[in-house]
Amino acid sequence: MLLGLLGREQQFAKPSGGPSADPNWGPTLPPLTGGKLYADPQGRFSVDVPQDWTQQADSSGSTTFLRQATFVASMNVRTLPPGITLEDLQTRYAGTIAQTQGATLLRLDKLFVAGERAYRFVYTNNDDNGQLFLVEYTILVSGGKEHSLAFSTDPSDSAHLSVTFDRVLGSYVIGPAGR
Prior knowledge:
Layout: H1 2-12, E1 36-39, E2 45-49, E3 54-56, E4 63-67, E5 71-79, H2 86-99, E6 104-113, E7 116-126, E8 132-142, E9 145-153, H3 158-170, E10 173-174
């Protein structure tokens, strides 16, 4: 009887925050091992990336990495207007994908990135040349800022690159590198 009451109490307890407090949200991904640390020069984030990823200049303020010509990884941080929530962004991006001609949402995942709730959109789309590509686009909100991480690749490469993308997400840290 006591165990039943304890279980019931835990079932209806409100989460106090953090990944372990909300098991129904989604997983915390394991970090990349054996990679190289990239620290954003503005101190907005740091992340481990595979050794063969090369950083490219990006005029939009994003941090972009390339590996051969098979995929692109892009990370960006932007200040949000007051009151904008993760759910607001999820609704906006889901609507954008739905309205984009040729885009097909394959799944929407809930997970934890850098200790924060995050949404990951996995969808396909066509580039300007009609070539199909797969995108994993992850968003999270922390301190009034949107952190977005996008991975784009040929769908035939996605099966083996998906694990790498997960590990990069798992190594993402908000704020300056302090590891």
